[in-house]
Amino acid sequence: MELLKRIMPPENWQSVVLVLVGILFGVGITAFHLSNASSYLSDESRTCINCHLMTPHYATWSKSSHGRSVSCSDCHVPHDNIFRKYMFKASDGMRHATVFTLKTEPDIIQIKPSGIKVVQDNCIRCHEKQLGESGLASHTGKAFSHGEGRLCWDCHRTVPHGIGNSQASTPYALVPDQTPSVPEWIQKLIKSKN
Questions:
Q1: Which among 80, 69, 53, 86 is positioned nearest to 175, based on CA atoms?
Q2: CB neighbour class for 96 (10 Å; exposed up to 12, middle 13-18, buried from 19)
Q3: CB-based contacts of 155-163 (< 8 A; 24+ apart in sequence)
Q4: pLDDT (tens digit, 9 = 90+) per residue, 148-176?
Q5: If you average pLDDT over residues 56-75, what whole number do you get?
Q6: Looking at the whole model, is its pTM more than 0.70?
Q7: Which tens digits make up the pLDDT trace of 66-118?
Q8: Is pLDDT of 182 > 90?
Q9: What residues are paired with 166 via a beta bridge?
Q10: What is the C-alpha to C-alpha distance for residues 159 and 27, in angstroms, rounded to an integer?
Q11: Better pLDDT: 120 or 193
Q12: Cα–Cα distance between 57 and 100 in angstroms, integer?
């Protein structure tokens, strides 16, 4: 009861605080809806093109051998435990959202060091049998874990994103249509005023 008394505003401020909390809640729900935030909980690859920056990567991936059976999350998110998976997605998602919102995106997107480890681990996880048969797993895997050796894409450079890694590399890429980010009621309001 003492804690409740401490966090409650004085009586003459309660209605103002209630209105402010309501406004913040409304803004939060609107931002959640406009950003299509619920889609980030899935492993659906279309989620990765919610912002236009990933369009070249989506386009090249979708036409590759990986595009037939592997999602973006299969390569770019850890799979060793569910907690780490969603923590990684949340951290990466917040960084992506911040960069996109502040318009500070680079012309050439490069994978971060934490992502390099995840992708390398996932290459080995999926291709373990082929690596074992060739003898590369023991050499490359051990060397990588000690900070040496090569990454899978040092040799397999064009898998699965092709050779282009800039926004201009696939200017006429065909990607699925995304739902508009402007709510329908606002679109109707704009049309009715014109």
A1: 53
A2: middle
A3: 159/64, 159/65, 159/66, 160/60, 160/61, 160/64, 160/65, 160/66, 160/67, 160/70, 160/75, 161/56, 161/57, 161/60, 161/61, 161/64, 162/60, 162/63, 162/64
A4: 677 888 888 888 887 765 555 555 555 56
A5: 87
A6: no
A7: 888 899 999 999 999 999 999 999 898 888 888 888 888 887 778 899 999 99
A8: no
A9: 108
A10: 41
A11: 120
A12: 16
Rounded CA Rg of the chain: 22
- Residue pair 9/21 in contact (Cβ under 8 Å)? The answer is no
How far apart are the C-alpha atoms of 94 and 148, rounded to whole Å?
30
Give the list of residues 6+ apart from residue 151 with CB closer than 8 angstroms, or none: 116, 120, 144
Closest C-alpha to 45, from 53, 54, 37, 36? 54
Contacts 24+ apart (CB under 8 A), 88-96: 88/114, 88/118, 89/40, 93/40, 96/51
Q: Look up residue 36 and give its two tokens.
A: 């299509």
